[in-house]
Specification:
With 121 residues, this protein is mainly α. The protein has five helices and no strands. The chain has helices at residues 3-41, 44-49, 59-70, 74-90, 96-105. α1 (3-41) packs antiparallel against α3 and α3 (59-70) packs across α5. The radius of gyration is 20 Å and the shape is globular.
Length: 121
């Protein structure tokens, strides 16, 4: 068996592996966004009805603290930002209540939580 034949036989395997790695990356990204969505959903009563106000130590604020911890690098902060913008769209028209959560909970994600925020900055 020649070198060219070995290479040509392995090309489909290599392409398959690259496709699998790409899919795994996308699934991982979706998982992270679902984690952000799950954390924000802890605050769904406040987001939907406007009360009760979350306070430090409440499950909602604990979730916001977790988001703050996830946002520990520029890339992760951008990703959390994009996920939050998606969540704001989901909760429309009450999505703007999400913007008030960091203030109630005493956290700062390093970006403004607002439907018009550019997460790439």
């Amino acid at each position: 068996m020649g070198t060219n034949q070995m290479v040509s036989e392995n090309v489909p395997k290599i392409i398959g592996l690259l496709v699998l790695l790409s899919i795994a990356t996308l699934v991982s990204a979706a998982d992270e966004c679902s984690a952000v969505t799950t954390l924000v959903s802890t605050c769904s009563t406040f987001i939907t009805y406007g009360s009760p106000d979350p306070f430090p130590g409440s499950p909602c604020c604990d979730a916001m603290m977790s988001l703050d911890l996830i946002s520990d690098s520029i890339d992760s902060r951008r990703y959390v930002c994009r996920c939050l913008m998606s969540v704001i769209t989901t909760y429309n028209p009450n999505g703007t209540a999400i913007a008030t959560l960091p203030g109630f909970c005493g956290v700062s994600f390093g970006f403004t939580v607002d439907p018009n925020t550019d997460c790439n900055l």
